[in-house]
Each structure stands twice: as structure tokens, then as C-alpha cells.
Amino acid sequence: MAVDKIQLDVATPDRLVFSAAVDEVVLPSVEGYMGVRPGHAPLLAQLDVGEISCHVGTETRYLACSGGFAEVLGTTVSVLAETAELAESIDVERARAARERAEERLRAESSEQEFRRAEVSLKKAITRMNVAGRVRG
């Protein structure tokens, strides 16, 4: 692999979701979005619910991610996410239904823990819908 590329591997506990040599990757860390290019310093970052984007030439690929960790070492970025989906694999209707369920749970009287879970569910559903919209227009 050329030194002007980074090997990006995105995996969940179940499977390898994405693997490619890329020019740049942008990750949703809990501290905010961070970009990684060739020559980046080594780091370990906790990921938040959000969008992973990676650039190869003029093409950009998108993934929805919900938590996990990213490790940058040399010319490799390894992401172990709780969940990750390529934009083109997202079932938009399922995401829309999940958003509606989460919104209903937020409107209902609930414990603080149930409310926080519903907030996270809503954020995941909205992220999935937004990421899917990137490739569907």
C-alpha cells in the first residue's frame, strides 16, 4: 500500500463491514468529528453515534456508526463499532419506524434511564436516515 493511503477497517462484533485503502477518513468521536490522513499521530478514540466518511480520490463512502473505538496506528485505522452500516445497505423505512418509536418513547412518561435510551435510539435512527440520504439523494 502506498504511503499516501490509509487502510481503513470498520468492524462490528459480528462482521467486517468495510475495508479499503483510503485517502482520508472522518470519524464521529465523543469529542467531535476528527479527520485522519496519512501520517496522523497514533491515537485511540471513543466513538459516538454518527457518520463515518472516507474519501478515495473523488469518491466518498459513508457509514452509520453507533459507538465503539477507533485506533490509528501507522497507516491503519481500525474501527470496532457497536453497529456500523454502509449507506447503501440502510433500510430507510426501518430507520424511519425506529425514529417514530423513539419519538413516542420520548413523549411518554418514563424514568430518566428510559428517556436517555430513547434519546440514543432517536440519534441512531436519525443518523441512519441521514447517512442513507447521502447516496439516495
> What percent strand?
over 45%
N-to-C terminal Cα separation, in Å?
A: 33 Å
Instruction: Please give the number of β-strands.
Output: 8
The CATH homologous superfamily name of the largest domain equals: F0F1 ATP synthase delta/epsilon subunit, N-terminal
Describe this protein with a few key phrases.
Single alpha-helices involved in coiled-coils or other helix-helix interfaces, alpha+beta, 30% helix, 137 residues, globular, eight-stranded mixed sheet, 2 helices, ATP Synthase, domain 1, single chain, 8 strands
Overview of this structure, please?
This protein is α+β, with helices and mostly antiparallel strands. The protein folds into two domains: 82 residues, F0F1 ATP synthase delta/epsilon subunit, N-terminal (ATP Synthase, domain 1); 46 residues, Single alpha-helices involved in coiled-coils or other helix-helix interfaces (Up-down Bundle). Helices cover 30% and strands 45% of the residues. Strands 1, 2, 3, 4, 5, 6, 7 and 8 form an eight-stranded mixed beta sheet that branches. β5 and β6 form a beta hairpin. α1 packs antiparallel against α2. The model has no long low-confidence stretch (mean pLDDT 93).
Topology:
Blueprint: E1 6-11, E2 16-22, E3 24-29, E4 32-36, E5 43-56, E6 59-73, E7 76-81, E8 84-86, H1 92-107, H2 112-136
Parallel strand pairs: 1-7
Antiparallel strand pairs: 1-2, 3-4, 3-5, 5-6, 6-7, 6-8
Summarize this, please?
It contains two helices and eight strands. The protein is of the alpha+beta class and 137 residues long. The mean pLDDT is 93.
